[in-house]
Amino acid sequence: MKERLEICLSGSGGQGLILAGIILAEAAGIYDEKEAVQTQSYGPEARGGASRSEVVISEEAIDYPKVIKSDILLALTQTACDKYVKNLNKDGILLADSTLVTELPDIPNKTYLFPITETALKKFDTKLVTNIISLGIIVGLTEVVSREAIQKAVCSRVPVKAKEVNKKALLLGFDIAKDLKKKIGKQAIEK
Question: Cβ(38)–Cβ(5) under 8 Å?
Answer without folding.
Answer: no
